[in-house]
Amino acid sequence: MTVLVLGGAGYIGSHTVYELIDAGQDVVIADNLLTGHVEAVHPKARFYKGDIRDEKFLDELFQKEKIDSVIHFAASSLVGESMTDPLKYYDNNLYGTMILLKSMVKNGIDKIVFSSTAATYGEPESIPILETDKTEPTNTYGETKLSMEKMFKWVSKAHNIRFVALRYFNACGAHISGKIGESHNPETHLISLILQVPNGQREFISIFGDDYETKDGTCIRDYIHVTDLAQAHILAMKYLENGNESNIFNLGNGVGFTVKEVVETAAKVTGQVIPSKICERRAGDPAVLIASSEKAKTILGWKPQYTSLEEIIKTAWKWQKNHPNGY
Ligand code: UDP
Question: With a threshold of 0.90, does the pTM exceed it?
Fold first, then answer.
């Protein structure tokens, strides 16, 4: 049983590979290394450098390796960039996934788990967010992920393919070993940016708006540890291996923290003062995003292990203070 991890050199992909290998799986990684890091590639995985938009590359890979399931992370994921360069997102996320599906159909690969996002919902109609809630993305990134889900739905009806889409809330933290972690260029995610302050790389953290209708006026998000996300992919893969139908699941802790609370917790973890400045709101930011993950818990048997924000930030800090410039 070999698993192909597309984007396995990226943040969530590399953490999933580590969990797969710990679980005794045979793993093949394909990554174009545009945003992934060769240092994040697990030494026990077989690595192929290539792009999912390259049908020949995928066909050759499927012919060479006996792939049983695919876990697909190979996508662009910056909300801001998706608004200034939307076609990059249609190309990489949607066109790339279309080529992948063509190659999977051709080569008889019938199971895939892939990254989706809370950004598929847009402004939520109620909290916590359920998988059945309306999906009206407010940015191109979320729109391309929602379109990917729909492409999978229609392709799976026509061909012998089953899928699981995992809608992540705010992925954060790093592997417990401190060997791999988050390393984006540019960095846009809150916890990594906050930790740049105690690391001496940033004087203060900008807080994007303090006039939201929340307890302290700053946005509330549901922070979920990357290793818990990784475990959900393994459970989703097993769910498909057991013959279950295609499905969509939210993945979050079900608890919300304000931006100010995250800054305070990071100050506690690092033992340092973290100055902040209130700035303008960031366009397209909903006030509150909190997941209901009851469906993943009930159907997949998923149980997040990192339920404390402090523990989550500790893992991020362990990684970041030893790798201030990433890989
Ligand atoms: N945020 C912030 N300052 C920053 C980066 C992010 O105040 O420098 C806020 C952002 O407005 C959001 C939350 O932190 O409310 C999480 O943002 P992030 O970009 O990490 O994830 P997103 O929720 O956009 O997926």
Answer: yes
